[in-house]
Write a structure and sequence with these properties.
This protein is α/β, with parallel strands linked by helices. It contains twelve helices and ten strands. Helix 1 packs across helix 2, helix 5 runs parallel beside helix 7 and helix 9 packs across helix 10. The longest helix is centred in the first third of the chain and has 29 residues. It is globular and about 45 Å long. It starts with 7 loop residues before the first helix and ends with a helix. The structure holds ligand C2E and calcium ion (CA) (3 copies). This is PAS domain S-box-containing protein/diguanylate cyclase (GGDEF) domain-containing protein. It is found in: Cell inner membrane. It comes from Halopseudomonas salegens.
Length: 279
């Protein structure tokens, strides 16, 4: 910003170089993480607001740089999507979630469903649904032990073939959630046609609902629409006791957020669940 006028071209050029550099650096990091098998899944519990029980958790991907510092997925997922690495990474996530479910067998966590995030790009692979079901089968797992989360735009942007894949998954028993609900442009007509089990309300609504009547109205509307379609409604980003009171008053079904637990490595899950159930 300090160089205006004749240096403007230079400024923009270096900006593009910076972005290219960033893109290449993250891409290389992802490739080496795949090669070294050093990606990691963290898990964040979803709390059933009716009885306080925990029967599902979301798997959130973590990638660490050369100094073992985490690179946020909001940074590396877009690079993975643009570079085509998302399919390999997505496959890694499916495999890792299944391995975790196997590792939890016979422990107090064996009833826990793992919900993975899918990128819309992965749904363009026509064999994705079959591949997921085959992987579950190979690990001797039930489809109901896995869930998938997709944003509304990823599903709605998709063609009938992609929706057919979600139908295959749902019919087999895989839990399907629409992620970041309310931020896209789905209409109620779409919602009725989509094979869906849950809506996850984007955390921005909850955070604004505390101060803003229209965001509060949107939240109420989403919850009642979800319920009238027979879907369970999950609220993301519950950080404070006030927000927790609000989501309970609005009769949300499940909550996820820092108030309950931050995403954690699998090793931390037994101690967390023990603390919650207290036995
Ligand atoms: P998302 O699917 O909407 O995941 C929820 C994000 O909110 C996670 O960020 C989670 O750590 C964060 N979060 C949870 N509770 C709270 C809270 O109380 N307050 C606040 N401020 N944040 C909270 P994270 O882990 O950084 O992931 C960001 C995004 O990256 C995810 O958003 C998802 O879109 C994407 N992502 C993560 N893992 C994967 C993956 O395996 N595959 C794909 N395709 N995308 C992924
Ligand atoms: Ca998600
Ligand atoms: Ca979300
Ligand atoms: Ca998101």
């Amino acid at each position: 910003a300090k160089d205006k006028g004749k240096n403007r071209v230079c400024f923009y050029t270096s900006d593009i170089n910076d972005r290219l550099h960033h893109y290449q650096k993250i891409g290389a990091l992802l490739r080496s993480a795949l090669a070294a098998d050093s990606l990691q899944l963290y898990f964040q519990p979803q709390i059933d607001l009716h009885d306080g029980s925990i029967r599902s958790c979301e798997a959130l991907l973590r990638c660490f740089d050369n100094n073992a510092l985490p690179v946020p997925p909001d940074i590396f997922i877009p690079v993975a999507e643009k570079s085509g690495l998302i399919n390999r990474i997505g496959d890694w996530v499916i495999e890792a979630a299944c391995k975790q479910l196997v590792a939890w067998k016979g422990t107090e966590l064996e009833k826990l469903r793992i919900d993975i995030n899918l990128s819309g790009k992965q749904l363009t692979n026509q064999h994705l649904a079959d591949q997921i079901l085959q992987t579950l089968h190979r690990y001797d797992l039930l489809p109901s032990q896995l869930g998938v989360e997709l944003t509304e735009n990823e599903v709605i942007g998709g063609d009938l073939e992609q929706i057919g894949q979600l139908e295959t998954l749902k019919n087999a028993g895989v839990h399907i959630s629409i992620d970041d609900f309310g931020t896209g442009y789905s209409s109620l007509v779409y919602l009725r046609r989509l094979p869906v089990c849950s809506l996850k309300i984007d955390r921005s609504f909850l955070h604004h609902a505390m101060e803003n009547d229209s965001d509060m109205a949107i939240m109420q509307a989403i919850i009642s629409v979800g319920h009238s379609f027979g879907l369970s409604v999950v609220v993301e980003g519950v950080e404070t006791a006030e927000q927790d009171d609000l989501v309970k008053a609005l009769s949300c079904d499940l909550a996820q957020g820092y108030l309950y637990a931050r995403p954690m490595p699998a090793e931390a899950m037994p101690a967390y669940l023990l603390g919650v159930t207290g036995d």
